[in-house]
Amino acid sequence: MLRSLIAFSFQLLLVVSIGTITEYAFGQEGWTTWVDPENQFTLQHPIPWYFNARADRFQDQDLYFYIDGNLTRLSIDVRNTTSTDLGGAMERLIRNYQMIPGPIQARLFAGPDYVSYTINGKPVGSTIWTYDTTDVGRLVTQDFISIVNGKSVYISYTSPERVFDLYLPDVLKIIQSIKIK
Q: Looking at the domain 30-180, which fold is it?
């Protein structure tokens, strides 16, 4: 009896392990699909990236990735909107950066750019900001805004300058993979 129970447990563990491996084999190598619990959007992301999904309506972002221990992070937020004014959304973003209080002042490095990126075939506005901190040095933030199917899409990628370009290709792949429903 004990021997058959051990054999059954091993077989179950093997089936579960193979099922998990097979699940990650689909799509891009080392990537998996995340589906928004409210079924507003899906995206692909690298498997090793740790993330938090919105637990309740009081949290700011739908999805927040912690990419490494260097303060590199990516946040994604999709909300219902009645606006179709992408330029107005970008102007509000720029104004918000210019009004950041305190000793850390954001500087517009590039943008607004409305031609380099799309989500679901819709244009994405993008800006790149730099700001110097005393504890980690220069940080770089690239923000992306789009309006797709009655949803505003806001994506913010922040990283120390020294590793910004290291993760940017994966961030851009994530953006390309976003499907708004």
A: Protein Transport Mog1p; Chain A (3.40.1000)
